[in-house]
Specification:
The protein has seven helices and nine strands, in the order E-H-H-E-E-E-H-E-H-E-H-E-H-E-E-H. By secondary structure, it is α/β, with parallel strands linked by helices. The longest helix is centred in the middle third of the chain and has 13 residues. The structure holds S-adenosyl-L-homocysteine (SAH). S-adenosyl-L-homocysteine binds next to strand 5.
Length: 220
């Protein structure tokens, strides 16, 4: 079973995943963890991966092309589900983690493709086109999806038989209660048309009232 992590800060993972239980689990070939730099897939000049949001607003949005191409390429190696970490996703609970681990135990050849957002998040069209599921690790906002990805890999891996020693058994673990979702509107950045999907016209109107109304109507 393999985890493929997509990030623009691959070094963040170096120390955490190469220690202790996760190091041992990889050495025993119980799990495989591959970290990919999204930037290497960018076809934009200077390997750019972000741009300003259409419709205005603070911060930057991750552009669709590098992410989309990275996911498409990695899907050839990992047939598992594509998860985007987002504060507006369903909150990861121990119950969910057990469900994911059970899936992996049943189909050891599968895994997960994990997308770490940065800035204000990723272009909504990547979510529409290739993301299977959105997961939050709690009702708070971090600067990026790297800690959520490590949380996910850590939490699922320890439920795979053989990863924990007897003295570290997970059978007595406590469970956390699911939390309420956060709502956010879809984000879009350049290009205006991507894979035949257009950015909604209202975001070009320059009419802030209309944009706000549209965003309020599209909270997810
Ligand atoms: N503007 C966004 C926050 C972006 S935070 C909003 O309000 O929803 C930047 C990135 O960090 C996100 O794209 C996501 O990948 C990650 N992130 C931040 N907090 C998270 C959380 N609680 N759970 C999962 N991912 C999170």
């Amino acid at each position: 079973m393999r985890f493929d992590i997509l990030t623009i800060f691959p070094q963040i993972f170096d120390s955490y995943l190469d220690q202790s239980i996760l190091k041992r689990a990889q050495a025993k070939n119980l799990i495989e963890i591959h970290v990919h730099d999204i930037r290497t897939y960018s076809k934009q000049s200077h390997k750019k991966v972000d741009d300003i949001p259409y419709g205005g607003g603070a911060g930057m949005v991750m552009t669709p092309q590098p992410l989309y191409d990275a996911i498409k390429a990695i899907k050839k190696l990992n047939k598992g589900r594509v998860i985007y970490f987002s504060p507006r996703g369903d909150v990861l609970t121990q119950q969910k983690a057990e469900k994911y681990a059970q899936e992996l135990i049943k189909k050891p050849k599968t895994g997960f493709i994990l997308i770490c957002g940065r800035y204000e998040g990723i272009d909504e069209r990547v979510i529409d086109l290739v993301v299977d599921e959105q997961l939050s690790i709690g009702k708070y906002i971090l600067t990026g999806g790297e800690i959520p990805a490590m949380t996910f890999v850590d939490c699922i891996s320890r439920l795979i038989p053989g990863v924990l020693g007897k003295e570290e058994s997970h059978l007595n673990d406590s469970f956390s209660k699911a939390l309420k979702r956060k709502k956010e509107y879809p984000q879009y950045t350049r290009p205006r048309i991507f894979k035949n999907k257009k950015v909604p016209d209202v975001l070009f109107s320059g009419n802030h009232k209309d944009i706000e109304q549209w965003r309020n109507q599209h909270l997810k």
